[in-house]
Design a protein that fits this description.
Oligomer: single chain
Strand order of the largest sheet: 6-5-4-30
Number of strands: 33
Protein name: BTB domain-containing protein
Shape: elongated
Keywords: Kelch repeat, Repeat
CATH class of one domain: Alpha Beta
Structural class: alpha+beta
Number of helices: 19
CATH superfamily of one domain: Potassium Channel Kv1.1, Chain A
Radius of gyration: 29 Å
Helix content: 25-40%
Strand content: 25-35%
InterPro entries: BACK, BTB-kelch_protein, BTB/POZ_dom, Gal_Oxase/kelch_b-propeller, Kelch-typ_b-propeller, Kelch_1, SKP1/BTB/POZ_sf
Pfam family, one: Kelch_1
CATH architecture of one domain: 2-Layer Sandwich
CATH topology of one domain: Potassium Channel Kv1.1, Chain A
Length: 622
């Protein structure tokens, strides 16, 4: 007899014997009461398959004593516990379409990983579009990441076929994920889904309406639907739609230029916009370059330069298709906004205090948040700050919000809904941290949400409105998984003045979706389901001239040469830029002709010359 078959025969005979002993009530030393029903079994059997029972029984006498365990948890019923004993003692598979979820809940409570995995595999094989939303919510609650991933991807692919009522019952965070990924709904239906979702629980959800507006391009709504909205919606919504209904071309262009939804129309096009940077020789650049991400050769157009030489280590973020820029080594108090519609900068009220550098920024609901960073004190010394400040776009005023649990500099930040997440950074002890900190902008409170897989600084965090990706300098590309149920519980505790607690209650986790080459002080943006990385330098200081495009599934699509080779410390965003701004080049007093491969006679500004020469392009000044 083969050893494998012999082993299986021994196992089968052993458990058959144990089953007979349980049925005869012999040597049973464990008494389990599920609600009001009693079961007798063997401690060694349940402890061998369940961490729950192993932990509970560890402190009981091992001989001459029948242990008793009371189970009153809502996820465990007498019926399913009886079936569980048959499964353990007899190998009887009781997982069906009707029982899989209930058994999985019970196995998760008892910490029976092999049964949990068996149930998850069964549901994965049998998931269908009509039940995918329910499966997603179920998987999210029980932290079944594989199942949740398949369920939400199926929901994205079939969003035009799933139950509208089920969509309206989704938590905000789940709807944000769907809208950030879906490509099937028309703009009318997208807007209708958002307004219907808010109306389904107006009192609680109205505060979140503006978080969904970046998914709507208002000039692309049909006239009939706009008329319907103007009649049916609240005054707040009417203000949002003002100027669109009449289809006035000037109003339409003005509003279109402020839309976050990326477009490619004859009059306005989506472009990557590169701000500032530092050349190989340390020269700080004020330029803004716009280039098409799908171009075979990355030709750029110059936009209005930054009005002040901020130096490196400034921060920027976008809100409603405008770029807000703050701080920097040379101008730590500087704060301004770039408006693509007019191709102009507007200088705004200075940052509070003595200003900042090496800080991240983020935008939520017409408020710009500045988080941590390196601040200059009145004594002239610099320190790592924990302060979170907010600029209100509507009132043009600054205010303090809260303090981070740990002050950090050279961290990155990104937004999901009303939450601003801050990733890693260097703390006041000059040590890199793996902390993920969160600012709840609704209550103005901060807390530790979890930890990255490793300590890091200088990362880039990118959000599509529903999912955050973090690119580490070591080349790992991470997708953040938000446990929004636990996040809401934590925020409720904080709002009522209670402590979250010291035990591990992470509201976020991560999985690696790609590995690229290491790069430092690079630029990154998210566009059309792709993470785009460019510029920066290697760990030995060599400049990088490649553009890496990573599909969010983890596939590295291509590498191309960018005209910004040799530059570091720049920021990269995707904006809708009027075509008129892309056909005019702003040339300084010193104009150069640069001979690029396949692009003879390309004209660029003088301050773009140095990074071009850094990679050996031939240049003749004229």
């Amino acid at each position: 007899m083969a050893s494998g078959k012999f082993r299986d025969a021994v196992f089968a005979n052993t458990f058959h014997g144990l089953g007979q002993l349980r049925e005869a009530g012999q040597f049973c030393d464990l008494h389990v009461t599920v609600r009001d029903q009693d079961f007798y079994c063997h401690r060694v059997v349940l402890a061998s398959v369940s961490q729950f029972f192993k932990s509970r029984l560890a402190s009981t006498p091992e001989e001459g004593f029948t242990a008793h365990v009371q189970v009153d948890h809502e996820d465990v019923s007498p019926q399913f516990f009886s079936s569980l004993l048959d499964f353990v003692y007899k190998g009887k598979d009781f997982v069906t379409q009707n029982t899989a979820k209930d058994i999985l809940k019970m196995s998760a409570y008892f910490q029976m990983d092999f049964l949990t995995n068996h149930c998850e595999e069964f549901i994965l094989r049998n998931i269908r579009p009509k039940v995918c939303l329910g499966v997603w919510q179920f998987a999210q609650k029980y932290k079944l990441h594989r199942l949740a991933s398949k369920a939400y991807k199926m929901a994205v692919d079939s969003i035009d076929r799933v139950s509208h009522d089920e969509l309206l019952a989704l938590p905000k965070s789940m709807l944000l994920i769907l809208l950030s990924l879906q490509r099937k709904l028309s703009m009318d239906n997208t807007c209708k889904l958002i307004t219907d979702w808010v109306a389904a629980d107006q009192d609680k959800r109205a505060v979140h309406l503006t978080e969904f507006l970046p998914f709507i391009s208002f000039p692309h709504l049909s006239s009939s639907y706009l008329s319907e909205l103007m009649i049916s919606q609240s005054n707040e919504m009417r203000n949002v739609f003002f100027g669109i209904r009449g289809r006035d071309s000037n109003s339409q262009q003005r509003i279109l230029a402020q839309q976050s939804v990326k477009v490619n129309l004859p009059e306005i096009q989506s472009r990557a916009v590169l701000l500032g940077g530092v050349t190989r020789t340390g020269h700080s650049l004020q330029r803004i370059l716009a280039f098409g991400l799908q171009d075979t050769i990355l030709t750029h157009r110059d936009l209005e330069p930054i009005p002040e030489a901020t130096g490196p280590h400034f921060a920027s973020c976008t809100w409603r298709n405008e770029v807000y820029l703050s701080g920097g080594t040379l101008m730590p108090k500087f704060f301004a906004v770039y408006k693509p519609r007019d191709n102009q900068w507007q200088v705004l009220p200075d940052l509070t205090g003595q200003g900042l550098e090496k800080h991240p920024m983020a935008a939520v609901n017409s408020c710009i948040y500045v988080l941590g960073g390196m601040e200059k004190r009145t004594t002239g010394e610099k320190r790592t700050s924990p302060q979170v400040s907010m600029y209100n776009v509507s009132t043009s005023t600054w205010s303090d919000v809260c303090q981070l649990s740990t002050g950090v500099r050279e961290a990155s930040a990104a937004v999901i809904g009303h939450r601003v997440y801050v990733f890693g950074g260097t703390d006041s002890r000059e040590e890199n941290t793996d902390l993920v900190q969160c600012v709840d902008t609704l209550t103005g409170r901060g807390y530790v949400a979890g930890r990255l897989p490793s300590a890091t600084c200088g990362s880039r965090a990118l959000s599509n409105g529903g999912i955050i990706y973090v690119v580490l300098t070591t080349g790992e590309v991470l997708q953040m998984w938000e446990d929004f149920d636990m996040a809401e519980q934590a925020e409720h505790l904080l709002a009522t003045g209670r402590d979250i607690g010291t035990e591990d209650k992470s509201t976020v986790s991560f999985k690696q979706v790609a590995q690229v080459s290491a790069r430092y002080q690079f630029g990154a943006c998210l566009h059309d389901g792709e993470i785009i990385l460019c510029g920066g330098h290697t760990d030995t200081g060599d400049p990088l001239s490649s553009v890496e495009r990573i599909n969010t599934t983890g596939h590295i699509i291509s590498r191309r040469t960018t005209l910004t080779s040799g530059a570091t410390n720049f920021d990269l965003h995707v904006l809708n830029v009027p075509q008129i701004r892309l056909t005019k080049r702003l040339l300084g007093s010193s104009e150069v002709i640069v001979d690029f491969p396949n692009l003879k006679g390309w004209r660029c500004r003088a301050d773009a010359l140095e990074p071009c020469l850094a990679v050996g392009y031939k240049c003749d000044t004229k």
